[in-house]
Amino acid sequence: xxxxxxxxxxxxxxTQDTLNHYQNEFIFPKVNxxxxxxxxxxxxxxxxxxxxxxIDEVMNDWAELAVEGHFYAEKPWWDYQERFAEPLSKIVxxxxxxxxxxxxxxxNLHLLMVSFYQPTKTRYKIICEEKAFPSDQYMFQSxxxxxxxxxxDAIVEIKRREGEHNIRLEDVLAKIExxxxxxxxxxxxxxxxxxxxxFDIKTITAAGQKAGAKVGWDLAHAAGNIKLExxxxxxxxxxxxxxxxxxxxxxxxxxxxxxxxxxxxxxxxFAGWWGHNKERRFKMEPNFDPVHGAxxxxxxxxxxxxxxxxxxxxxxxxxxxxxxxIKKRDHITSYLEFILHEIDKEVAGNFEVITPSNPAERASQxxxxxxxxxxxxxxxxxxxxxxxxxxxxxxxxxAPVPLYCSYEDMYDFGQILKKGILGx
Length: 424
Hints:
Blueprint: H1 7-16, E1 26-27, E2 30-31, E3 34-35, E4 37-38, E5 47-48, H2 51-65, H3 69-72, H4 85-92, E6 99-102, H5 105-116, E7 125-129, H6 134-146, H7 151-154, E8 155-158, H8 169-179, E9 183-189, H9 201-210, E10 214-218, E11 237-240, E12 254-258, H10 304-320, H11 322-346, E13 351-353, E14 366-370, H12 375-383, E15 386-387, E16 389-391, E17 395-398, H13 407-422
Parallel strand pairs: 4-15, 7-8, 7-9, 9-10, 10-11
Antiparallel strand pairs: 1-5, 2-3, 6-12, 11-12, 13-14, 14-17, 16-17
Pfam families: Aminotran_5 (PF00266), KYNU_C (PF22580)
Keywords: Hydrolase, Pyridine nucleotide biosynthesis, Pyridoxal phosphate
Enzyme class: hydrolase
């Protein structure tokens, strides 16, 4: 398709968009009494309108049933988390028994590393990407310290080549081969939070396992955003947050994946009452008998009030389906890229999109270096109803989330961006 930088063309694309009506399912903030253009679903997704009903249902059951809500609520709290298995499995490409919800993201990655990072005197190194999200970096440092290793010895970062913004797949594979018999774990973000680069999860997983390591993925920016086939790709484990592309609310519950090949293993894990055999849980037995599947990694009674908005979201994803989301994601991201290049020409600017141009290596994010521009332009955008994300030194991250962003939003953003630059 040949794109055009006109309102009429953008409106025509919206008319053809089968997901366009889902904008009405969300609540948008307003700036100057006008609905914002929201580009920060890669940080916190918008609130779905249906969320409140799910929370109110739990609140009403608590008020009317109190403790009996565990068993007699319309959605009993006792097995509330089991409602996630089917829809989440479709989002991440897994069997229902391979997914669960619990805790928050970094907590879950720590708990999964109890099982999947088992260093020995000779095999103790972890491979991660350079400039991983800081929480992952802190996690790696504390884990290797806990096991008695020095971070500078045990943590191996795959670096970008000089002058390049993204990590080459060939460099990831070469580093895995280089570390070889010393490699215990590969743990990388499926989508890099800063550049928006999508890693080849299937190929990297196979290479890490061939080297004798376990391979896990931080899918914070991937779940609900890219096509995942975690079971078929033979991923050992993964975890993700739910408040970015899955719109479950600030700091909400994390999802976990544990491949079925590990369900009957004797891997170590930290245990708790909620992960114990469901049928025998109230017998208060002294020895831990884990639930079969990923639920056996649960520890504590789950926060149902937090799970309610997440359930509202995954049920919306079940209606839409990942294939439809990804189709629009690719198209609207390409249109946004076109708009950026058009405005760049109109203002004689110097924008540099550091996200890969290959659609197979990117998702719902464009990270843009605004060469010659500064924080003042970001402030202008925010004051004029474009909610975006600033990263030092002068990068803005734009996430045209397909569920609630329109093509006309992309056009309007371009016009606001142009005014912000020319009005300096």
